[in-house]
Amino acid sequence: MKRRSNSILSSDVSESVGLHLPKVNLTSAAKKVANSEQVFSGIFIRAYRVTRLRKLVLRTILRLEGGQIFSRSFRRILKDYHDVEIGDFSYGRCLYPAGYLKLFRTGLPAGTRVGRYCSFGRDVAVFRRNHPVERLTQHPLFYNSALGIVEKDTINQDADNPLEIGHDVWIGERSIILPSCKAIGNGAIVGAGSVVTRDIAPYSIVVGTPARHLKYRFNEELIQQIESSNWWDLAPQELLKFSPLLYNAVDQISIQRCFNSSL
Asked: pTM score > 0.70 for this model?
């Protein structure tokens, strides 16, 4: 029986996206993406317009393009059809369109923007609007046009309150992001089960209900160095040349040495 970590920041990549990262051949995955884009991508993206074909289209392109982490066609579909932008190499069940997985919560609200190399645990929920508590009734019959009582929504749309998530953000399992949070900065960590009610600063670790700042991952000078490096713009194959930073704790000397000598 698999032992689960008790850490409040625990997350399982292989369970989240069906991939076992240590076994992934980055060169092979890149070739799969390139081949699929050249031959099939446009066809599948157009086929996604047909509602009954959507799950089949997604399953097919994910298989052809090396899975959710690598698929560019998957990202084009999210942007073109769902108004959700996902940076390269970000992953998580919540990134799939709503209803794609029967047993798990999926789908990010329209207008959401996610950076590169982000990690999402299972059952992460993002909300961009609330019940109108100041009215006589807060029931959705009187603000949600999809229920057939009102002709159009009487509260703002999700896209009117977009969420911006930076690069290399880790959001733990069963975390909830409420409409009052507008932005989550680069490198931030949201502990599992947290309820986020406000913006999160870059490289901040937050935990709890409501989520509160625990500490920063790095000191201010090191954060500035990391931000200046823009390492997230590089592909995984390019990042491998910075192995001292990938497999050891980062400090100001090591990051300066690596980036000054390589960029």
From this structure: yes
